[in-house]
Amino acid sequence: MRYAILGFCVFATACAGAPTSPSSVSSGIATSSPSSFSAQVVPTFTPSVGAGVALTKAKGVSGTPFKGRLQATETVDGNLHHLVGTGNGTHLGRFTYTAEITVDNSTGVGVGSVTWTAANGDQIFASTVGAIVDISENGVTLRETQTITGGTGRFSEASGTVTVDRTLDFSTGTTTGSFGGTISLGH
Questions:
Q1: pLDDT per residue over 135-160, tens digit each?
Q2: Beta-ladder partners of 184
Q3: For FRET with 82, which of 25, 27, 46, 136 sits at 20 to 30 Å CA-CA?
C-alpha cells in the first residue's frame, strides 16, 4: 500500500510542473512555495503517521480554461465602438456579448468594458484593451486582452485573463473570432 501511495505522490508531483525557484526540504519531503509556480496546481505534502505521505490541500490554483467562439455586429459612433453579439464557450454555454470600446483613431488602440451573459443569465464583467494587428482592404484583425473583474451569480467572484482574436469586416460591420484564457470562479 505504501508503494501505491508513494507512486501516486510521485505522479502528482511530476504532473504539477517544474518549480521556477528552488525547493526547500522539510522533514525529508521536498515542498515548494505556491508563489514559485505560475498557473499550476501545486500539491502540498505532509507526513502522515503510518501511511507514508498524504496529500493535503492544493495551493496556487489560478483558474480553468475559458475559451470559445463569438460573432457580433460592431457599430461606430465617433470614437465609441458598440459590439452586440453571441457565441458559445466554456463555463457560459450559449452566451450574449456586449462591449463599449473607445478607440484612439490615431493609434488604433481601444479601451473599454465587456459583459458576457451566460445562457442562465449569470454575467461576467471585464475590462478590455485591444489593438489592430493586421489591416486588409476588407477589414482589420484585432487582438484584445480582457481582464475579468467580477460578475453576477456563479461569476460574482470571478477573475482571470482572456485573449480575444477577431476580424472586423468593414462592408458588413460583422466581427467574428475566438477567445481563450483562464477564469477563476473564486469559490
A1: 999 999 999 999 999 999 999 999 99
A2: 159
A3: 136
